[in-house]
């Protein structure tokens, strides 16, 4: 449910520039953190590489490549990328997305200025739900709704804000302690209603319990670290981004989170805080940003690769196997995704078109894509 992806190392100088940027500029870095880039987008291949032949595909806007991961002959499949809805404004640079399952409304956040947009069911154009700068926020990363009708909005520069979806009231705010570097990225809701947030700079997971939320109502509280993964992750260049997307498993029995720089997936036990690496087969999760998990299927967006991959996760997340990967330039540097009523909705950030990842001019309007066939 969230950035400068530079997986082979965000240099110390770049990280310093990102973290010292004025909040109003909201260009601290990674997409999804958004993520980390393994290499400049122009240097990345435009199709996915697997051992199996590519399947037959089609797109309404540009060639798409999907590749099933198997040793058997590939079956023909059709992938389709279209536009689901538009976001008003010429400097949106969206990053996070969430859907309210009770109403079917989508919420999309602007990394550039913190605006939160709401798209009503059946609408093709979003409307402003929370304006830029609301409650002192000047950026928005990960978004997530919960069963109680609340919207969680991470702010990479400070922490997370919690809103009532009906009244739009700010219920509480949680901030990262200390003055050191931080990049609060994505958020997931556990089985007991606790929120878990990744920090891409500190390689940490924060937790906000229902009790902490109730105690902080109407005010501000401090985030506490629930899991420190700095000793678990493979070594990365100093100042690089690590943890990005996070998602809860069935009934909140476990959480999955990704290290976009190392391409690894990790399993976090909400009860004990224990962390273990999930063995992957058929590929890795380098440049992975947002995650979505349903019924044992995990979808992953790879931001600078313009890709979405689909994985089969074993019972209790003991392992994960790559089943298919779609690469399409019209995904426009995707940062995250959500699944609703059997369809995937992918955020087109365009971070590399005048945003935090490079100069240029974005295509207006900014949009969210609907992806079928993967």
Which spans of ≥5 residues are poorly predicted at pLDDT below 50? 1-66, 68-76
Derived structural class: mainly beta
What is the count of β-strands? 27
The pLDDT mean sits at 84
Share of helical residues: under 10%
Gyration radius from CA atoms, angstroms: 19 Å
* CATH class identity: Mainly Beta
| Major beta-sheet overview | 6 strands, mixed
Overall outline: globular
Q: In the CATH scheme, what's the topology name? A: Neuraminidase
- H/E element string? HEEEEEEEEEEEEEHEEEEEEEEEEEEEE
Give the percentage of residues in beta strands: 35-45%
Tally the structural domains: 1
User: What is the CATH homologous superfamily assignment?
Assistant: TolB, C-terminal domain
Q: Helix and strand layout, with pairings?
A:
Blueprint: H1 12-20, E1 65-68, E2 80-87, E3 94-99, E4 106-110, E5 116-119, E6 127-130, E7 143-145, E8 150-155, E9 159-164, E10 170-175, E11 184-189, E12 195-199, E13 204-208, H2 210-216, E14 220-222, E15 224-228, E16 243-248, E17 255-259, E18 264-268, E19 275-278, E20 280-281, E21 288-294, E22 297-302, E23 307-313, E24 320-327, E25 334-340, E26 343-348, E27 366-372
Parallel strand pairs: 10-14, 20-24
Antiparallel strand pairs: 1-24, 2-27, 3-4, 4-5, 5-6, 7-8, 8-9, 9-10, 11-12, 12-13, 13-15, 16-17, 17-18, 18-19, 21-22, 22-23, 23-24, 25-26, 26-27
């Amino acid at each position: 449910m969230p950035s400068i992806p530079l997986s082979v190392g965000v240099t110390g100088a770049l990280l310093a520039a990102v973290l010292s940027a004025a909040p109003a500029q909201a260009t601290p870095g990674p997409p999804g953190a958004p993520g980390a880039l393994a290499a400049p987008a122009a240097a990345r291949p435009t199709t996915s590489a697997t051992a199996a032949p590519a399947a037959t595909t089609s797109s309404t806007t540009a060639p798409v490549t999907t590749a099933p991961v198997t040793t058997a002959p590939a079956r023909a499949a059709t992938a389709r990328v279209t536009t689901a809805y538009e976001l008003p404004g010429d400097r949106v640079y969206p990053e996070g997305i969430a859907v309210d399952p009770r109403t079917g409304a989508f919420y999309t956040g602007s990394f550039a200025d913190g605006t939160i947009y709401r798209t009503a069911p059946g609408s093709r154009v979003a409307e402003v739900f929370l304006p830029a700068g609301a409650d002192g926020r000047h950026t928005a990363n990960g978004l997530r709704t919960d069963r109680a009708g609340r919207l969680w909005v991470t702010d990479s520069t400070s922490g997370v804000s919690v809103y009532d979806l009906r009244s739009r009231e700010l219920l509480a705010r949680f901030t990262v302690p200390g003055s050191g570097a931080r990049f609060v990225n994505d958020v997931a809701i556990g089985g007991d209603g606790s929120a878990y947030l990744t920090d891409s700079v500190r390689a940490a997971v924060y937790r906000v319990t229902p009790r902490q939320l109730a105690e902080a109502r109407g005010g501000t509280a401090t985030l506490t670290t629930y899991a420190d993964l700095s000793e678990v992750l493979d070594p990365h260049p100093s100042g690089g981004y690590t943890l990005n997307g996070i998602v809860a498993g069935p009934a909140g029995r476990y959480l999955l989170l990704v290290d976009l720089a190392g391409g690894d997936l990790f399993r976090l036990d909400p009860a004990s805080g224990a962390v273990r690496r999930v063995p992957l087969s058929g590929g890795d999760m380098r440049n992975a940003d947002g995650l979505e998990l349903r019924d044992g299927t995990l979808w992953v967006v790879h931001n600078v690769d313009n890709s979405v991959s689909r994985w089969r996760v074993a019972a209790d997340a003991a392992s994960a196997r790559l089943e298919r990967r779609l690469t399409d330039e019209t995904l426009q540097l995707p940062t995250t995704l959500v699944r609703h009523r059997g369809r995937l909705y992918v955020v087109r950030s365009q971070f590399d078109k005048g945003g935090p990842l490079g100069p240029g001019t974005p295509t207006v309007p900014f949009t969210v894509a609907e992806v079928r066939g993967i």
